[in-house]
Description:
alpha/beta
Amino acid sequence: MTSRTRTLARSAAVLLALTALAALTACTSGTAATKDTSVAASSTTLRAAAGKFGLKVGVAVNTDRLDDPAYAQLTGDEFSTVTPENAMKWGLVEPTEGTYDWTAADKLVAFAQAHGQLVRGHNLVWYQQLPTWLTDAAPKMSAAQLSAILKAHITAEVTHFKGEIWQWDVVNEAFDDNGELRNDIWLEKLGPGYIADAFRWAHEADPAAKLFLNDYGIEDAGIKASAEYAFVQDLKSQGVPIDGVGFETHLDATYAAPDLETQLAKFAGLGLDVAVTEADVRDQLPVSKADVATQSDIFAQTMQACVDVPQCISYTVWDLDDKDSWIPQTFSGEGAATLYDDSLKPKPQFTAVQKVLVKAEKSAPQRSK
């Protein structure tokens, strides 16, 4: 059986399961089908409004919750791209060296195909969520050994999903806040050249996928953004196959919104695509009406920045609802960072983003295909 045949078979099997689940839900008397419909915010979805000028609007997906019909329906109806929150990270796909588990990631890819969505692959190289077999052995490895393992991982994952991933976050959070390359196992053992190698290996495995360098804290001018810009400029000068830069855009409503448009345009000026890849806006809990208004305004500003830069090809919110958000577990006492509440009801933040897109339908610059 060829790789493509296996892919089609895998997608068909998962799609069949999803279709059966949807049919069962629709036949349940009264409650479930009606409840699912009620989570739609309005007749104008984000994907429809943004699609008028070629922008993709996405969401990070908890694959476990795709078994919840309401969660699945909202994810499928409202967004044109999906990003696996965790399902494609190294620690999950290769928990034992040489033994791969693609189950959750395949499930998301099949879901996306069933709903006419594109997939952002996240991520191939990161300093976190690595398998313990690797972190335990890496300190004793030679540079050649670790490089071979990294190449094997990138090649295996990109090959498995060849033709099914629109954008890959090839290297994630490579820079520290001080503007220096992060001193992780990759830099320590392999030197800064590991980043260029990762892009070359990913391109070899799937020449059609768009390859991104993804990071936080580059949404505003500063030492980190300047360092990353210079680094990307150097990658381009070397002919490294980098297609874009991802701006995570995890923001705090207690601070002013960043000058995101300027930064997006600056990196786009290098001949690259840019994308908002992990947008959320947190605040202290409980949030007041004034807090919500501020969060809504920041969401609107970041979406407007993406709309106004033609090379900004996608805008992804990180997590569908507050129930799934990573913020409360990471920032004590903070939360309410997404577009939907714990009951999958749209918040004012959703409406703010929606209004930007609807207003832009006829005037925004078209995105390239």
